[in-house]
Design brief:
0% strand, 15 helices, 356 residues, DUF475, transmembrane helix, membrane, disordered N terminus, transmembrane, mainly alpha
C-alpha cells in the first residue's frame, strides 16, 4: 500500500508482538499488585484475573474503534500515521486510562491531583463512588460525540457503497440538507432529557451539548489546519486536524470502558493495567487493518463499525437512565462487525464468480 510507513504484509501474529509483550508484563504487574495488597495467593490470582477480564472487555469494546482509526489513518501522511501510532497510543493508555479518571475526581471532589492519587490508593471505594456519580455527564458527552461520528459517515451525499441499501441510500440523499445530522442528535438529546428528573436532565442536556459542540469544533479546527497544510503541499493529507480528531474519538470510545471497569474493581492501578493491555491490541489491529488494506478488501466492514458506533452512542444515552452491562455493548458491536465482514466476503465471492 503506497503512502504508508508500514512494511509489506507479514504474518498476522507478528502484528501483535508488542501487545503480547505488554500483556505478559501487565498481567505479571497485576499479580504483583494483588500479592502486595492481600499477601495471599488467592488475592494475587483474583487481581490477575480482573486484569485479564478488563483487557478482554476493552478489546471487545474497541473493534469498531480500530476500524474507524484505520479508516482515517489510511489517508494520513506517513509521519502523522507514525505520530498517532506512537504518541497517540501513549495518550490513549496513560491519558485516558490513568489521567482521565483522576481528572474527573479532581473536578468532582474539588481536590488537587496528588490528593486524587492518594484517594485512589487509600480510599478506593470513595474514589469509585465519585467516578460513578460523574457517569451521567460523561455518558451524555461521549454519546453525543459518538453519535455525530456515526451519523456523519452515513449522512454523506458522496457515499455510493451501501450495506443496508434501502436505508443508507435514503439517508445519503438527505445529506444535502445542511446540518441534518446535528438535528438528529438534538432530537435524541431532547428525548432523553425528558426521561430524566430535573437536575439530572439539566446535567445531561448540558454535557450532551458540549459533546456535540466538541465534535463540531474539532471538525472546524481540523479543517482549518489541514487546509493550511494543503496550501503548502497538494499531497498533504490528514495532518494535525486528523490527528486531533482521532485523539478525541479515542477518548470518547474510552469513556464507557473506564466507567464500566469500576464494576469489577475499585483499584485505579488495576484498571489502568487491564485497559492499557486492551489499548495495545487496538493499536495492533489498527496497524494490521491499514497495512493489509483490509477496509478496501471488505467493503462493508466500515459500515458495521459505524453502525456499532451509533448503537454504542444510544447505549451511552440509555446508561444515564439504567445500567446496561458492558458485555452487551461489547458483544453487540463485535456481532455487527462480524456480520458486516461476512456480508463483505459474500459480496467478494459473487464478484469473483457471478454464477455462484
Amino acid at each position: 500500500m503506497t503512502g504508508t510507513p508500514f512494511s509489506e504484509a507479514k504474518p498476522t501474529l507478528s502484528y501483535f508482538t508488542w501487545a503480547f509483550i505488554v500483556t505478559a508484563l501487565g498481567l505479571l504487574l497485576g499479580a504483583w499488585l494483588g500479592w502486595l495488597s492481600t499477601g495471599t495467593i488467592g488475592g494475587m490470582l483474583a487481581v490477575f484475573f480482573i486484569c485479564a477480564v478488563l483487557a478482554v472487555l476493552e478489546i471487545s469494546l474497541s473493534f469498531d474503534n480500530a476500524i474507524v482509526n484505520a479508516n482515517k489513518l489510511k489517508d494520513m501522511r506517513p509521519e502523522w500515521q507514525r505520530a498517532f501510532l506512537t504518541w497517540g497510543i501513549l495518550i490513549a493508555v496513560f491519558g485516558m486510562r490513568i489521567v482521565f479518571p483522576l481528572l474527573i475526581v479532581v473536578i468532582a471532589a474539588g481536590i488537587g491531583p496528588w490528593q486524587a492519587v492518594v484517594l485512589a490508593s487509600t480510599q478506593p471505594a470513595e474514589y469509585s463512588r465519585i467516578m460513578h456519580d460523574a457517569h451521567l455527564p460523561i455518558a451524555a458527552f461521549g454519546g453525543a460525540f459518538l453519535m455525530m461520528v456515526g451519523l456523519t459517515y452515513f449522512f454523506d451525499a458522496e457515499k455510493d457503497v451501501h450495506w443496508v441499501h434501502w436505508l443508507e441510500e435514503r439517508v445519503s440523499r438527505t445529506a444535502t440538507i445542511r446540518g441534518v445530522e446535528v438535528g438528529v442528535v438534538l432530537i435524541f438529546i431532547l428525548i432523553f432529557a425528558k426521561l430524566l428528573p430535573g437536575a439530572e436532565s439539566t446535567a445531561f442536556t448540558t454535557s450532551a451539548i458540549y459533546g456535540l459542540l466538541t465534535f463540531l469544533v474539532v471538525e472546524f479546527i481540523g479543517g482549518l489546519l489541514d487546509q493550511s497544510q494543503q496550501t503548502l503541499s497538494a499531497a498533504a493529507k490528514g495532518g494535525v486536524g486528523a490527528f486531533l480528531y482521532l485523539e478525541v474519538l479515542d477518548a470518547s470510545f474510552s469513556f464507557d470502558g473506564v466507567i464500566g471497569a469500576f464494576a469489577l474493581t475499585d483499584n485505579l492501578f488495576v484498571i489502568a493495567i487491564g485497559l492499557g493491555i486492551g489499548a495495545m491490541y487496538v493499536r495492533s489491529m489498527t496497524i494490521m487493518l491499514v497495512e493489509r488494506g483490509t477496509l478496501q478488501q471488505y467493503r462493508y466492514l466500515e459500515h458495521g463499525a459505524f453502525y456499532a458506533i451509533l448503537i454504542l452512542s444510544v447505549i451511552m444515552f440509555c446508561q444515564t437512565i439504567t445500567h446496561i452491562p458492558e458485555v452487551i455493548t461489547g458483544l453487540g458491536g463485535a456481532a455487527l462487525i462480524g456480520v458486516s465482514l461476512w456480508s463483505s466476503i459474500r459480496w467478494n465471492r459473487r464478484e469473483a464468480d457471478p454464477a455462484a
